[in-house]
Design goal:
five-stranded parallel sheet; rod-shaped; Phosphatase 2c, domain 1; Rossmann fold; alpha+beta; 24% strand; 2 domains; six-stranded antiparallel sheet; 410 residues
Length: 410
């Protein structure tokens, strides 16, 4: 190991003692500077850097103890080892020297072998200190680089959130005999939930709720891809629509839509993620609903009489099993009834006691806020969920699509 002690300042009011020490240290290869008083030494130390100071304790004017204290108060970079030369041997004097910042003591007259050993001991201390400084600089540099990367990633995620929110181009539309409202609240910058609706032919409204496994960028990218399969502006690219013999587009059965998505995810996209989904059609004239449930939480019907009825058969998620079968379910909405598809971020919310909200708790929230509609209802549900969790981070995305069937107002 290379000795870090190169430059030494020798301070002694005795010229003879300085010359003896300087001669010995110079022969050992050290760069030595001399000072005859404490004041002179302090002035030299303000302009130059030394690795080690070897100072007599007893000097006229500023003594070695005062020099050590004054030097330790100077602004500097890096540590400097300080050895006091003294004839004092009592413990009180040694303690006093340590208190003001001395590192070691050497009895006078100085033994050359002991001096060499004390300097080598100081060199080991300085080596460890400088190694620690190097590691601290490396840590500081690395943390700065990580912070820069984090800031860049954070900016990208903010933009990604904006883009994901743009997937929900309309949060509300009035179709005359029905209204549809959407809510999408990722728990982080981006999430794996997706909700939407589109016209699926004359007097048919399609709507869906999707929850991709996992969280973060990979899940968000898959939701963006899935959103493209349900394009409202391009029926030729909408997986839920098929062209009829007259060139018009009509809805595919919901179970066939789920089956096609399952094949795409397993064979073409080859994603490690899967997703759950509720996908349905509402007949805008009769209130009839055809839907398929693919591992998603049960749908809930909220009636004007303030009843919240859950229904569903579970079904298999999409993207797990190649030959999974998906079933069609049917129901009819009466005027004033609302059909709600929601993500499990609601029902799996955990309270301070560890209990999940579940369907019963979510039903209570719906009944409590049933007088509200559309965005106001969604806001109230989120407030109640936050209160139930005790203000804790919810930890999962929240999404909801609500369809309200009305009397014919056309």
């Amino acid at each position: 190991m290379i000795n870090p002690v190169r430059r030494i300042l020798v301070v002694d009011d005795s010229r003879a003692q300085r010359r003896i020490l300087t001669s010995s240290l110079t022969r050992q290869g050290y760069d030595v500077t001399e000072a005859g008083t404490g004041d002179e030494a302090l002035e030299i130390l303000t302009r130059n850097h030394f690795d080690l100071i070897l100072s007599d304790w007893m000097m006229p004017g500023m003594d070695g103890l005062e020099l050590c204290a004054a030097f330790r108060d100077l602004p500097r970079t890096g540590y400097v080892y300080f050895i006091l030369l003294t004839s004092k041997t009592d413990k009180g004097a040694v303690a006093q020297g340590l208190d003001v910042g001395a590192d070691d003591f050497l009895a006078k007259p100085v033994n050359p072998d002991e001096l060499r050993a004390r300097i080598n001991a100081g060199g080991r201390i300085l080596s460890m200190e400088r190694e620690l400084q190097d590691k601290n600089r490396l840590v500081t540099t690395t943390l700065a680089e990580i912070q820069a990367l984090y800031n860049s990633l954070d900016r990208d995620l903010v933009e990604a959130r904006k883009m994901q929110q743009s997937l929900v181009r309309e949060k509300y539309r009035d179709f005359g005999t029905a209204e549809v409202s959407l809510m999408l609240k990722p728990c982080g910058h981006v999430g794996g939930d997706l909700v939407g609706f589109f016209e699926a032919g004359p007097d048919v409204l399609a709507f869906y709720s999707i929850d991709v496994s996992g969280h973060g960028i990979a899940s968000a990218l898959l939701t963006a891809r899935l959103a493209s399969y349900f394009s409202d502006g391009s029926p030729t690219h909408n997986i839920a629509l098929e062209q009829g013999p007259n060139g018009d587009y009509r809805p595919r059965p919901p179970e066939m839509v789920a089956d096609e998505l399952n094949k795409l995810l397993l064979n073409d996209l080859r994603s490690e993620h899967y997703f759950t989904m509720l996908f349905g059609y509402l007949d805008l004239t009769s209130g009839g609903v055809d839907l398929t449930q693919c591992g998603h939480p049960n749908a809930v019907r909220l009636t004007p009489q303030n009843d919240a009825d859950f229904f569903g058969a579970g079904g298999m998620p999409i993207g797990l099993i190649e030959d999974a079968r998906f079933e069609r379910q049917q129901m009819t909405l009466s005027p004033g009834e609302r059909l709600i598809f929601y993500s499990d971020g609601f029902t799996e919310c955990v309270g301070p006691g560890g209990a999940m909200l579940d369907e019963a708790g979510f039903a209570d929230f719906l009944r409590k806020n049933s007088a509200l509609t559309n965005e106001a209802l969604f806001d109230a549900l989120v407030w109640d969920l936050d209160a139930y969790s005790g203000g804790q981070d919810l930890g999962d995305d929240l999404s909801c699509v609500m369809v309200t069937f009305q009397q014919d107002r056309r």
